[in-house]
Amino acid sequence: GIMSISSSKEEDLEVKKGKNLSPSSSSRSWLAEAEAMDWSDLAVSLERDDMIAKALDREISLKDYSKQVDGELRQVEVESVRDYLDQSERVASLNAQMKNCDEALISVQKVLASFDKRLKGTAKQVRNLQSESILLEIKLNNRVAVEKRLS
Fold first, then answer.
1. I need a surface site. Which of 2, 37, 86, 102 has the fewest CB within 10 A?
2. Using CA atoms, how far apart are residues 30 and 23, in angstroms rounded to an integer?
3. Residue 113 DSSP label
4. Per-residue pLDDT for 9 more than 50?
């Protein structure tokens, strides 16, 4: 498609020559790149951008379109900040709830660790009782066997 920009050729030359740029080294390197750039390639790549293509199709001034987009961005920013402020109480409440849950989980973890320790102690006692029971059963069987031989 043919690119129609409402800005003047003089504005294009000012940008190309760097009159609107600060004299920093990065600006100078950008200026060198801009001077070497094939402007027709830039026009083609800009036409591929949906937002720029829409602006070009409507044949509006890029400066006016830039101001419009800037205004829309500022509005979105204001709405975003307003939404953040509206949600801040909920976020703070959620944060407090999460801290309470963390504290409850830590408490449950301590109770479970204590229970595990007592359970391990009980299991050890059960094993000791089983060993004693086996020993007592062996002694009883031996005593019964000795009594049978003696009688």
1. 2
2. 11
3. H
4. no
